[in-house]
């Protein structure tokens, strides 16, 4: 994996600040990063512009700026979401007897934040923290549908969409039409698009500003996903997602 030395050195500079040494001089920081003082100064100037560091009140060095705190707040918001959603996910897993997932979008992939329900003989091998291509899952399509079409094109880039099963959507125009339908109907289906024999139904979780921040899904063996069962599970997952979204808005979650 290619690594940019300038980025690595900038991150080393940020990592040098500790609770014991919240302020460091240019000389100390250059030594920590293994860089010349002139190079360290340029890196620190860039970090300062973006709010990651600031000049210390004494004027003799640097300290961390507010940007790392802002970023940590966004991360904590995800953990807050997980805790907020947990009882509703448990309730849905008990009610349906199926596996319930919670995920967010990271680039062109989904990241699983939580998973509830008992393992079954025929299910998917997913883990919290694991990833999956967004275009090949119900949750991924819900999350992509929450973005402007131009942003979806940017995320997916010019590379071909990978096929995992015979029903994986790899045609971009067809995917665009499906995302538009998802925006209108408020839920998405996965017709064995990532795993043979596995279907999913997913709904969006919306924050205070109405943006789609996460997705909730039920994962079901295809043999148990007839038309009547699909309609029932769709109602359950969309209702649960709406209740979680209400709590998100009440809690001010918008990241």
Describe this protein's structure.
- By secondary structure, this protein is α+β, with helices and mostly antiparallel strands.
- The chain has helices at 5-15, 26-33, 37-49, 67-96, 138-145, 149-156, 172-185, 227-250; strands spanning 53-55, 62-64, 99-106, 109-116, 131-133, 188-191, 198-206, 212-221.
- The strands form two sheets. Strands 5-4-3-8-7-6 form a six-stranded antiparallel beta sheet. The chain has a two-stranded antiparallel sheet with strand order 1-2.
- A hairpin with a 6-residue loop joins β6 (188-191) and β7 (198-206).
- The longest helix is centred in the first third of the chain and has 30 residues, at 67-96.
- 31% of the residues are buried.
List keywords for this structure.
255 residues, alpha+beta, Arc Repressor Mutant, subunit A, Beta-Lactamase, 2 domains, 8 helices
Largest beta-sheet characterization: 6 strands, antiparallel
User: For this structure, what is the CATH class of the largest domain?
Assistant: Alpha Beta
Write down the CATH topology of the largest domain. Beta-Lactamase
Number of structural units classed as domains? 2
Number of distinct beta strands:
8
CATH superfamily (homologous) name of the largest domain:
GAF domain
Strands of the widest sheet, in order across it, are 5-4-3-8-7-6
Order of helices and strands: HHHEEHEEEHHHEEEH
* Principal-axis shape: elongated
Low-confidence parts lasting 5 or more residues at pLDDT below 50? Answer: none
Tell me, rounded to a whole number, the average pLDDT. 86
The CATH architecture category of the largest domain equals 2-Layer Sandwich
> Radius of gyration, rounded?
22 Å
Helix content: 40-55%
Distance between the amino and carboxyl termini = 29 Å
């Amino acid at each position: 994996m290619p690594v940019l030395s300038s980025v690595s050195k900038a991150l080393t500079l940020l990592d040098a600040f500790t609770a014991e040494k919240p302020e460091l001089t240019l000389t100390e920081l250059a030594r920590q990063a293994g860089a010349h003082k002139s190079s360290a100064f340029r890196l620190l100037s860039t970090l300062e512009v973006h709010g990651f560091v600031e000049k210390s009140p004494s004027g003799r060095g640097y300290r961390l700026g507010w940007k790392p705190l802002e970023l940590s707040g966004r991360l904590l918001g995800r953990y807050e979401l997980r805790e907020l959603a947990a009882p509703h996910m448990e309730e849905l897993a008990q009610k349906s007897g199926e596996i319930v997932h919670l995920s967010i979008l990271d680039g062109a992939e989904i990241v699983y934040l939580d998973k509830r329900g008992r393992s079954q003989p025929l299910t998917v091998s997913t883990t919290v923290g694991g990833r999956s291509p967004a275009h090949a899952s119900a949750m991924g399509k819900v999350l992509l549908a929450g973005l402007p079409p131009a942003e979806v094109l940017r995320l997916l880039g010019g590379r071909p969409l990978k096929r995992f099963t015979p029903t994986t959507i790899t045609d971009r125009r067809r995917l665009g039409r499906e995302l538009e339908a998802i925006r209108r109907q408020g839920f998405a289906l996965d017709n064995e698009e990532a795993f043979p024999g596995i279907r999913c139904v997913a709904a969006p979780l919306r924050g205070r500003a109405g943006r789609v921040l996460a997705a909730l899904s039920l994962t079901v063996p295809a043999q148990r996903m007839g038309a009547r069962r699909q309609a029932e599970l769709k109602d359950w997952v969309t209702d649960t997602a709406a209740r979680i979204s209400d709590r998100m808005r009440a809690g001010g979650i918008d990241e």
